[in-house]
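Our preliminary data section would be incomplete without showing what the modeling component actually yields. Below, a chain of 232 amino acids is followed by its predicted structure, encoded as tokens that our downstream tools consume directly.
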Amino acid sequence: MPYRRLPKTDAARLKALKTLLDSDDIYTVRNRFIDWKILNRAKTAFERLQTAVEQYQISFQTQTRHNSKIEKLQRNATMYVSHFLQVLLMCTERGEIKRSQLSLYGLETDATCIPNIKTIAGLLDYGQKAIQGEKARIKAGGRPIYNPPIGIVATHLDIFRDFYNQQQRLSRRTRQDLDDLVQQRPEVDSILLELWNQIEAHFAQEPPEIRYAACRKLGVIYYYRKNEEHLY
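Predicted structure:
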């Protein structure tokens, strides 16, 4: 015999509710066997869930598009910051810049390699320190580094930072929309359970071939066990 199981996805929940709500000629005109209170709850739940699903999908798709773009911006910013710091260290090796001035860039005075800027946190941190350090050294009378100039480094870092901050906001919005969606599921499942109980109770005296067909028409979902013959 088939067994009943509540939907596992939001799409299935919406379909089950919509199937019932669109069949009001069965349970209202012919025979009012579903309580009006639960029907009103079902209508409200359907509208809220549908809105929440659509909002989450919009947020998720927007975030996904930004994720694909941010990787390229991060690579560009990393490349320019890395090149600038490498040139800075080479200048100290040639004696063009005093090692004591490396502290202006957030580096140890005996540094021989660039810090870890492969992570976003490291990139933003040392990128900003490089910009501030170069400005401070030039202000003190030092000659600027031209390959690459700090202005171009700052431009690429700013573009990446702005896009990253926007992506973080989108990510928070997506999580909020998902939380709202998750919070609605228990109520929807509770409504479906009550509706299905009333529907099955109404058709309980009918033979199986009629009972299951009638319940399915009102959105009740049945499954067959593995290797079980589909009789109804």
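The helical segments are 10-21, 24-30, 36-93, 120-139, 150-202, 208-217. The first strand starts at residue 3 and ends at 4. Preliminary results of this kind motivate Aim 1 of the renewal.
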